[in-house]
Design goal:
158 residues; mainly alpha; 4 helices; 89% helix; 0% strand
Length: 158
């Protein structure tokens, strides 16, 4: 696990698990800060849901890839599916978090919004780096399978 992922998961767990304790210890007149903390914890839950979906797609792709080593056409289809599925989950996550941060929940202070948007930009860029790997594997496998197909046709024509 990379350091950014570790910090992300630990921060989300601390925010979600620490919220009830922190909210009970607040004075009664600090209701607005409790509501704001609850909104941040909800966004952390969104990140956990999307991270689970993204990780499942990626892990399943790696498992199936090992089963399809000798089937280049199936590998090409698998790589392009993983690329588009991961890209879809990443875009949906970014749009959901930006909506929740900017439009949906007006109770958040500006600093919390900026921090959440900054973290989302970092997470989206690291996920793009991982997704791009499947696009590159697709291009390599497609080129290799077309070379293999052409080479086998040349062999048959002789």
């Amino acid at each position: 696990m990379r350091p950014l992922d570790l910090i992300h998961h630990l921060g989300a767990i601390l925010a979600i698990q620490g919220y009830p304790t922190w909210s009970v210890s607040q004075p009664i007149d600090a209701v607005s800060s409790v509501v704001q903390a609850r909104k941040v914890a909800d966004i952390c839950l969104l990140w956990i849901v999307f991270a689970g979906a993204y990780s499942s797609i990626k892990a399943l792709g790696h498992i199936i890839r090992r089963c399809l080593v000798f089937k280049p056409v199936a590998l090409c289809r698998l790589y392009i599916f993983i690329f588009y599925a991961g890209l879809g989950v990443t875009i949906l996550e970014a749009l959901t978090v930006f909506y929740a941060t900017l439009l949906g929940w007006g109770e958040l202070p500006m600093l919390a919004r900026v921090v959440l948007m900054g973290l989302q930009i970092v997470y989206t860029s690291t996920k793009w780096a991982h997704i791009r790997m499947f696009r590159d594997m697709y291009a390599t496998e497609k080129k290799r399978s077309s070379i293999y197909t052409c080479a086998s046709l040349i062999e048959l024509s002789r």
